[in-house]
Write a structure and sequence with these properties.
The complex is a heterotrimer.
Chain A lengths: L17 E9 L3 E4 H8 L11 E4 L6 H16 L6 E7 L10 H9 L6 E5 L5 H14 L5 E9 L14 E10 L5 E13 L2 E2 L8 E2 L5 H20 L8 E4 L5 H10 L3 H4 L5 H4 L6 H10 L7 E5 L4 E11 L3 H4 L6 H6 L2 E2 L2 H7 L7
Helix pairs in contact in A: 2-3, 5-6
Chain B lengths: L2 H5 L2 H6 L1 E4 L6 E2 L15 E4 L3 E10 L12 E8 L4 E6 L12 E11 L7 E9 L6
Antiparallel strand pairs in B: 1-2, 1-3, 4-5, 4-7, 5-6, 7-8
Chain C lengths: L4 E7 L10 H15 L7 E5 L3 H4 L5 H7 L7 E5 L5 H14 L5 E8 L29 H15 L10 H10 L13 H6 L2 E3 L2 E2 L9 E8 L1 H4 L7 E10 L14 H14 L8 E3 L5 H10 L30 H5 L6 H14 L12 E8 L4 E9 L3
Parallel strand pairs in C: 2-3, 2-4, 9-10
Antiparallel strand pairs in C: 1-7, 1-8, 4-7, 5-6, 8-11, 10-11
Helix pairs in contact in C: 4-12
The chains are: A alpha/beta, B mainly beta, C alpha/beta.
């Protein structure tokens, strides 16, 4: 029996309107073509590869360094004093420390210290939007004027595993503010979460496990369609109301198929569909699609974002771009600038860069 | 374990926070509380832009203990646009050819770990070729 | 101030002395110098050393040395000035005798590089750099020199990269006749030109090899030394100058300011011009240091020091012989002990005891030791005394 979301007060809406004042993306320089993984593990079979290539971090990069750069881009666009940011929340499945926050380092590096909330979030690929919803709540309650939420990952797949083709590095940072300062307003968010173990990683394990086909229908498609459909029902909208749509993008096919299931066209999802070029950036995947959209959107454009995290759940966000986008978005590097910065590597270099060679 | 000495330098290392001399307006990095140009007391914090150019560089094929992971790497003297020169690695070079005078920008990266894999990760400034795009 | 002369010198072979400890090599140098000085007993021993406290886990070297040389109770301690430590110790011995505080002082340079093995061997050498702002970035002494050479070639586009080869080539040629040298084999220009890159644009032969070594000198008054019975050499100039700790803090890193200042000061003390000297023992830790030292001394205009390496000028046959017993490159580079070797070698020349490498009638010598890239520069002028 389906709930009547149009009347049920299930939408998350802050008491005071909240928006995005600054946003920033980061994608590392190196690219591993999927054909390289296939060359090693599939005898060169190049048919049906999940993406074209994935972004690989350099030796000296991790979730913290990439979060710092994305946050600096967000700060350049926001044009605010970092001391006014009262929360730095980072969603990731690849925090460099098991115990010790990534967020304290990022907050220190960008100048937020010492009066800010700092915490690391984990919800597989949904950790980024989880941090964003929390930041919206903090600003929307007026506990804080500004809050920074980041989704960033340097994801790893077991050598030869299906995930190795796509597990990539990158993500985005968002600074939330009162709506009157924002380049885009959050109309509402909506979450759909169940206990669905489609993908996980136990402590001390280097690589995750996944349920293969089980990750599809009961996990990815179920949660995204539930969140997207009910969000539109509750907002009283149809796909036609949105200029852009972006979904969690673990590969090329899934986000396109889920867009179709929800009634969105290629015209609406193509701007935010980055996985073919950079792979699956996990906690960064849906929200770096959003930075690519904000880089191009016009005032008044409406955007639907739906993330997905294994475990499992989806956060949907209904967003409207404001006039302020035009004066802010050129103040920092754009998502496509990072995608265009590209050095192709082979599998040998990849194994070195990702620390898969035992050095000691 | 050398946590205290890395910890106390975090602002300098993460974000090139130096000083500006209130007497002669010189920008100072690393901070030293006494202006190296006029000798006056200088304790006013100043955040450097991170933009600069390569003053000199060298590619090292033989690298010290703790830095093997990224060998070979390129060390540089980088002249910051505000004046001071810093020693730092260049990163994200890809196939890019390095030359003296090349514009570079600061990024915060992993430098090494203290001790082995059990120690803290030391983050700090490196420089990369300026990324094209709007400023 | 009293006149100070060198009454005795002693050195041990430079090299990898895996079987010897700090005590062994230092005792050998002390004994050799005392023997050369007719058994004179020093009242004070100044020890030049850089890495013992890290590489050998040994400080309190004054006690270690006196304890092992039957000199218990003698005033003795370490003078640290980077790789110029032994030269600075020599200066302290000079000042102690000149001031009248003691009549007989010893300067001892000692270094045990091979107490460590494996990839941590070079770790202690980084002590002379700025740990907080150079070492942590991945900088080494070698990369510092690579940065200097790259900048030099940029500022002086006419400079011939291969001309830097003169320094290792001369060093190796001169070391052939030095029984205490680490490498007693001449190298050909083609070998230099083909050597593997270590820190671009520097190759393997642009870099002096770290090694073990100990050398000692006994300084005293003319009256006491006259009884010793070999030609006497006196100190007529002694100075030390200091530059910034970090290379990046220098307005002009290629200037080697401290080297220039200390050299100018010793020449003015001695009442000579640099061009008056018969030879120059310079600190060729890297070939580019050789070029920069010659320029800072005024032997060549800025940007033209590389030209001095072309032809015979710097060889034993030339009018400005350098590193007559092999220099750091071929005699070997025992870090903080190096200055003692440079001074001992200069004194051999001035006493006419340099064998095959003897510069005819050598009377005046310039000896310069550097700590870091001329971060510390210790310079001396030595003169053979008329009989």
């Amino acid at each position: 029996m389906m709930n009547d979301y149009a009347t049920d007060p299930i939408l998350l809406k802050p008491n005071h309107p909240v928006g995005i004042i600054g946003y920033g993306a980061y994608v590392p320089r190196y690219r591993l073509p999927a054909t390289e993984v296939a060359r090693l593990w599939k005898g060169g079979e190049g048919e049906g590869l999940p993406i074209k290539e994935k972004a690989v971090p350099g030796f000296d990069e991790d979730t913290i360094t990439m979060s710092i750069e994305a946050s600096r881009n967000a700060l350049k666009r926001a044009g605010i004093d970092p001391k006014e940011i009262r929360a730095v929340w980072i969603g990731s499945e690849s925090h460099p420390y098991a115990v010790k926050p990534s967020s304290t380092i990022v907050g220190e590096a960008i100048g937020c210290s010492p009066h800010f909330q700092a915490g690391d979030w984990e919800f597989a690929c949904k950790a980024g939007t989880e941090a964003m919803v929390a930041a919206i709540g903090l600003v929307g309650s007026r506990m804080a004027k500004y809050a920074l939420a980041i989704g960033m990952d340097t994801a790893q797949g077991r050598p030869g595993d299906a995930l190795e083709y796509t597990a990539a590095a990158g993500g985005a940072a968002y600074i939330f503010s009162p709506a009157d300062e924002a380049v885009a307003i959050i109309n509402a968010t909506f979450s759909y979460v169940t206990d669905t173990p489609d993908f996980w990683r136990r402590p001390e394990q280097h690589y995750p496990e996944h349920g293969q086909r089980f990750t599809g229908d009961p996990a990815y498609f179920k949660h995204i369609t539930e969140a997207g459909k009910h969000m539109m029902q509750a907002m009283n909208t149809t796909p036609a109301d949105y200029k852009y749509a972006v979904f969690h993008q673990p590969n090329t096919k899934f986000p396109q198929r889920v867009a179709g299931l929800l009634g969105f066209s290629k015209e609406q999802y193509k701007t935010g569909l980055l996985s073919p070029m950079i792979g699956n950036t996990y906690a960064g995947a849906a929200i770096i699609g959003l930075t690519a959209i904000l880089d191009e959107a016009e005032p008044g454009d409406r955007i639907l974002l739906v993330s997905f995290g294994s475990g499992a759940g989806s956060d949907a966000m209904d967003i409207t771009v404001t006039d302020r986008i035009l004066e802010h978005r050129d103040k920092a590097l754009k998502t496509q600038d990072y995608i265009a910065r590209r050095t192709e590597i082979d599998y040998a270099t990849y194994t070195r860069l990702r620390g898969k060679l035992t050095m000691r | 374990m050398e946590v205290p000495r890395h910890w106390r330098l975090k602002k300098q290392r993460y974000a090139l926070v130096g000083e500006v001399c209130p007497h002669c307006s010189s920008k100072i990095f690393p901070p030293r509380d006494v202006c190296p140009y006029c000798g006056g007391e200088a304790k006013t914090q100043f955040s450097f832009s991170g933009r600069g150019q390569v003053y000199s560089f060298t590619q090292m094929t033989s690298v010290p203990v703790g830095y093997e992971q990224s060998a070979p790497y390129t060390m540089a003297l980088v002249q910051l646009e505000e004046g001071p020169v810093v020693t730092a690695q260049l990163t994200d070079l890809g196939e890019q050819h390095v030359e003296i005078g090349m514009p570079v920008e600061m990024v915060t990266r992993k430098i090494r770990t203290d001790m082995d894999d059990r120690g803290i990760i030391i983050y700090g400034y490196k420089f990369r070729p300026v990324l094209a795009g709007p400023r | 101030m009293r006149e100070v002369v060198i009454a005795g010198i002693g050195q041990t072979p430079v090299g990898e002395h895996w079987e010897l400890s700090l005590r062994n090599i230092s005792a050998r140098a002390v004994q050799a110098a005392r023997k050369d000085a007719g058994g004179l007993i020093p009242e004070a021993i100044y020890i030049g050393n850089l890495i013992a406290s890290v590489a050998s886990h040994q400080a309190n070297l004054g006690a270690l040395v006196t304890d092992n040389t039957f000199l218990e109770g003698t005033e003795s301690y370490t003078i640290e000035a980077g790789e110029a430590s032994a030269a600075a110790a020599f200066r302290m011995a000079y000042l102690a005798v000149a001031s009248g505080w003691v009549d007989i002082a010893m300067a001892l340079g000692m270094e045990k590089y091979t107490d460590l093995s494996g990839d941590t061997m070079d770790e202690p050498t980084k002590l002379v750099m700025d740990y907080d702002y150079e070492v942590y970035t991945g900088q080494t002494l070698t990369s510092q020199a690579g940065l200097l050479m790259q900048r030099y070639l940029y500022e002086n586009p006419k400079a011939d990269r291969l001309a830097f080869g003169a320094f290792p080539l001369i060093g190796h040629t001169n070391a052939v006749n030095n029984p205490n040298a680490m490498f007693r084999k001449a190298i050909r220009a083609e070998v230099y030109e083909k050597a593997g890159m270590v820190s671009s644009p520097m190759n393997m032969f642009d870099i002096a090899p770290f090694a073990d070594g100990a050398a000692a000198l006994i300084l005293t008054t003319t009256e006491i030394a006259n009884k010793v019975g070999h030609p006497l050499v006196r100190v007529i100039g002694s100075d030390v100058a200091i530059d910034t700790l970090a290379l990046h803090d220098r307005p002009d890193p290629l200037a080697f300011r401290a080297a220039g200042v200390s050299l100018e000061n010793v020449c003015s003390q001695a009442g000579i011009l640099p061009s008056d000297v018969d030879f120059f023992e310079l600190h060729d830790a890297f070939s580019v240091y050789g070029v920069l030292s010659l320029e800072s001394a005024g032997f060549a205009p800025r940007g033209e020091g590389w030209k001095l390496g072309i032809g015979d000028k710097l060889t034993l046959k030339g009018d400005l012989p350098i590193n007559t017993m092999g220099g750091l490159k071929a005699r070997g580079y025992p870090l903080g002990a190096t200055g003692a070797y440079q001074l001992v070698e200069a004194i051999l020349q001035l006493r006419g005891e340099a064998g095959e490498n003897q510069i005819p009638d050598a009377r005046l010598a310039l000896v310069q030791s550097l700590g870091g890239p001329a971060t510390t520069a210790v310079t001396h002028v030595l003169e053979r005394m008329p009989v």
